[in-house]
Structure formats: structure tokens, C-alpha cells
Here is the input.
Amino acid sequence: MRIIMNKFSAIFFISAVAFLFSSCASSISIPGEKNRVVENLAAEYYNIADAYLDQKNYKKAMEYYDLAMTDESIYNQAFYKKGYAAALAKDWAVAENIYRELLSQDSKNTNFATALAYIVAQSGNLQEASIMYENLVKENPYDEALAKDNLLIYISLKEVDSAILAMENFKLNFPNSKEITTLEKELETIIPKDENSQEATTDKA
Here is the structure.
């Protein structure tokens, strides 16, 4: 009887231990498991956001980049991509806030500064955009795209003297540019007719 009881006790103990660990496995948190779940989920959200970005569904991409930002390890990438998607979606307010934040963290980044200047111009704040482009052109005098945008901002603001000077510098720095003829025609739209006539007379002389 004692032998039977000992066997029963041993079997019961083994069964109890097996039950205890099998039941606790579902309730006890394994160290690091939650972080791995968050990371894996965030990575999936990031991939989904990229897919929407490729499909030019920028609003959806922004939503999933938001979800991806729950993981600190990919927060910066997702934050940048959200700003990029916002700019493509022409959501200028969101894009501007993001690029201002990016630029505050990396003030020497010309790409961020250029993107922000463009976004500010598109949002309608041409005066601030003009200052931004002026600074960018000073720092990057042989960047044709920046010089062109700077000139176009002057034209939009109808700042004739600044536009004429910018046009002269553009032709000097980029004499072979295919944009010269188009830009000169744009410039003519803000120059008073009498000045155009005088310039034409001077050219003939």
C-alpha cells in the first residue's frame, strides 16, 4: 500500500508540476517578449506604410508610419517617412512641422532645409520661403535647382530688382542651362512695359 501511495504521490507531483508550468506559460511574462512583439508589429506597420507610399496612397502611408513610431528603434525613419509622405500628399501643415523638427535636430542638413523651404513656399508663406532660399543659395551658390527656385520666389513676390539680379547670377553661374529662356520669360511678366522697351532698345544698340 505504501509503495502504491508513493507511486501515486510521485505521479501526482509530476502531473502537478507539468500543469503548473503549462498554465503559467500563458500568464507569466517572458522577459523581453513584449518588446519583441512591439518591434515585430511596428516593423510590419512600417512595411505596410512603405507599400502604401509606393502606391501613392500617401494618407494611408502616414497612418501606418504613425503606428510604426511606437517602436523607438525605427521611430526616426518612420517620422522622416511620414514627413515625406505628408509633403507628397500636399498636407503642408504636417509636413512643415515634421521638417522643422528634423532640421532642429540636424541644422546642417541641406536636404531638410531645401525641403522645408519648398514646403513653406507651397503653404503660401512666400516671404519666409524667400529668406530660406536666399540663405540656401548663399551656402550653395552652384546648385541650379536652388537658384531657379529662389528666382521664381522673387518673381512670385514681384520683387523686380532682386529677380533681375538673381537672373543675372543664374546666367553667369549656369550659362548652358536649358532653363534660361523660360526663366527670362517669367521675369518679363513682372517688369513694367516701359522697362522692357528700354531693355529692348539697349539690346539693339
In short: Residues 7-34 have pLDDT under 50 and may be disordered. Residues 35 and 117 are 38 Å apart (CA to CA).
